[in-house]
Structure formats: structure tokens, C-alpha cells
Design brief:
9 helices; alpha/beta; GMP Synthetase, Chain A, domain 3
Length: 306
């Protein structure tokens, strides 16, 4: 009997950071890899505010992905926090995925990230996203341009939205991992508590339904989650915080229609995620200039308690 046939493959594990400027598709890639929504998606920049940790587990191994806030020029204490979170992860992981949007040229955000990458020893994959939107021949000049700036371990073109070549990316990631333990149960896809995910799903609907200054001025707090007497229903009470009375009026809408639509869309996703019948109540509250108040940022979970 061939002994090689009975040799069990070593279980691999490790941590992977996903970095890139806002709106290049980091959250879309993360959600596609784990097979469900753990990071909210929007066509508005700076959607991700915290490190979103997602877990991918197979018989081959377990990869813990960290989706970081997009790197941008901060305009508030919240912005400072978001950029610091993104940069600080670079030395904490086994591999970095630097995601770029091939439909847009290299800009200040990419230059800023490249300079930071030169200061770490962590291996880096360059991930060219949104290849479904360009002609394949246009990728070669982009690849050559980035190769001149940094020595990437691998360069992999994908479409996170369509799923093109994401399997090859995942295999390449596992190829970089060493033998290690299973950090999380095999059926767990995120380290965040349900309250965090629920708040993010509500915030996502605000991003989808509002525009201009409103999306960046809101935070969502889940005040209470409790089971109904039947054990199958979930009652959720949440508050949307904004900075100005005028924004509160927009979020509520004429005869409360905007708030109803936010609640309806959020409830649909929450029920699909948790598998429970959900009763969702949302209020809108005004906290002036909360993005520059450290106490408020801590209350909303943007700073770790020391």
C-alpha cells in the first residue's frame, strides 16, 4: 500500500489583512470569500469604519481575514482612527492583500499605502480588482507600473463582484500559510457579536438610501436585543445617531417613509442572517459633532478600551 496516500495534509492557518483606498471592493471580496455578508457594501467611500474580521475554514485550513477601513485623508477624529486602524494591521498579520481598482488610475491613496508597505516585512499580494470592467490587455501596463514600485509576492487579477479568479487567489493565500491551529469553530464566519453585525446592516441601508453629507454623519447603536416568549422571535431596538437636526429630518423622511424603508430593508437582511423572525424598531437621535468627540467614538466602539 502506498503510504503517501494515507498521509494527512497539514492544517494551515493564518491572518490576512485586506488594505486599499476607499471603494476598491475590499468588503465585496471579503463577503465573497466567506460566502455571506460580514462587511457592509456601498458605492460610497469610507463605508468600513472598523476592522471587520471574517473567517474562512476548510479541511485545508483556516484563514482569518481583516478588512480594514479604506485609507484616506482624515478630516475628523473618526477619520484619524480609521486610517490608524488600517495601517496598524500591517505588522499584525501573515499576509497583506493590497487591493486596487483597475478602472481608476493610481492616486495619493495608493502612494500612501505603498510607502507604508515598504516599512513592513509582511509579504504582499497585489490584487487587481474589477477586471470584469476592463479589457484584459489594459492590465499589463498597470502590472508593470506597480512592479516598478514594490516587490510583490504575487500579482493576481480578480473580479470580487463576479467571483472571477477568486478561487485562485484563495489557493495562493493558503500557499503562503504555515501549519497552524484552528482559531475559531469551523462554522463561525466572524468574530463580531450579533449586535455589531445588526448595527452595520442598518447603517448599510442608510448608505444606500441617502446621499451627500448624511451617510458619513451617522452611527448606529443597537440599544437592546431580546428573544420573544416563543423563543423564535427577536426584538431589536436601535438608534441612528446623526450630527444635525436637518439630517434627522432626512433620515425620518416625509411621514416617516425614509425610516420605514431603512427598517424594512435592514429587517430583511437581519432575518436572512440570523434565521429568526425579527421585529425592528429604529429611532433617530442627534448628537452634534459626534465624530470629533472621543467619548462618543468610544461609546460607538471605535476605540478599544485600554
Amino acid at each position: 500500500m502506498d503510504k503517501r496516500a494515507t498521509t494527512k495534509q497539514a492544517f494551515k492557518s493564518g491572518f490576512v489583512s485586506i488594505v486599499g483606498r476607499p471603494n476598491v471592493g475590499k468588503s465585496t471580496l471579503l463577503n465573497h470569500i466567506v460566502g455571506q455578508k460580514v462587511a457592509i457594501m456601498s458605492n460610497k467611500p469610507q463605508t468600513t469604519r472598523n476592522k471587520i474580521t471574517a473567517v474562512h475554514t476548510t479541511e485545508q485550513g483556516q484563514i482569518i481575514f481583516i478588512d480594514t477601513p479604506g485609507v484616506h485623508k482624515p478630516k475628523s477624529k473618526l477619520g484619524d482612527y480609521m486610517v490608524n486602524v488600517a495601517i496598524n494591521t500591517l505588522n499584525e498579520v501573515d499576509l497583506i492583500l493590497f487591493v486596487i481598482d483597475v478602472t481608476e488610475g493610481r492616486g495619493g491613496g495608493e502612494e500612501f499605502i505603498l510607502e507604508r508597505l515598504k516599512q513592513v516585512k509582511t509579504p504582499v499580494f497585489l490584487v487587481l480588482n474589477k477586471i470584469d470592467k476592463v479589457h484584459p490587455e489594459s492590465l499589463l501596463p498597470i502590472i508593470d507600473e506597480y512592479r516598478k514600485q514594490f516587490e510583490f509576492k504575487q500579482i493576481i487579477p480578480i473580479s470580487a463582484l463576479e467571483g472571477n479568479n477568486t478561487g485562485a487567489l484563495l489557493e495562493a493565500i493558503y500557499g503562503e500559510m504555515e501549519e497552524g491551529p484552528m482559531y475559531y469553530p469551523a462554522d463561525q464566519v466572524s468574530e463580531h457579536p450579533e449586535r455589531f453585525i445588526v448595527a452595520e446592516l442598518i447603517r448599510e441601508k442608510v448608505l444606500h438610501l441617502t446621499r451627500e453629507e448624511v451617510p458619513h454623519s451617522i452611527a448606529v447603536s443597537v440599544e437592546e436585543m431580546k428573544r420573544g416568549d416563543d423563543g423564535k422571535s427577536l426584538y431589536i431596538y436601535a438608534a441612528i445617531y446623526t450630527e444635525r437636526d436637518s439630517q434627522k429630518g432626512i433620515l425620518i423622511g416625509k411621514k416617516g417613509e425614509m425610516l420605514k424603508e431603512i427598517g424594512k430593508r435592514a429587517r430583511f437582511d437581519i432575518e436572512r442572517l440570523l434565521g429568526d423572525k425579527v421585529f425592528l424598531e429604529i429611532w433617530v437621535k442627534v448628537k452634534k459633532d459626534w465624530r470629533n468627540q472621543e467619548r462618543m467614538l468610544r461609546n460607538f466602539g471605535f476605540y478599544d478600551e485600554e
